Amino acid sequence: MIILITGSSHTGKTLLSQKLIEKYHYPSMSLDHLKMGLIRSGLTNLTPNDDSKMTDLLWPIVKEMIKTAIENDQNMIIEGCYIPYDWKTYFTPEYLEHIKFICLVMSSNYIEEHFSDIKKYASVIENRVTDDYCKKEILLRDNRICLEMCKKYGCDYILIDGKYKIDINLNINEKVRNL
Hints:
single chain, 44% helix, Adenylate kinase, kinase activity, transferase
């Protein structure tokens, strides 16, 4: 099973990934780590601030990694914000049955009421060197767009509203893959 975890910044993608790793013992890949590896190695001229262009660079690589993992009957968790909302169009039905997609979205109400908590827990899994770019207005905008895109493309999403609680019992189907 391939588990894709996406969502806007600060929604808890890395935390959810870590909990799933601990529960299912699947290997994982952070798209932020892949991004920084390509940037630091000089294999791209993009910078950490070029988020809008990063999906176009990373997705062709990641989608082929997903196909390879499925063909080899391997499990994997891939988390990051560089997964396009039309991700399903890149796979045949035979591949799609082995992919679980989760998009984390915070409601406007949640952001308004819990912004200080969002900032407080920003480094709970990974150490953010700086979190100055995290502004309430940006989170409100990005999560609104994320929800709109999930609805437009029929993506599964978890709406974080009220209390932050995500069920990690994904009912992962452990069936034999014959492609």
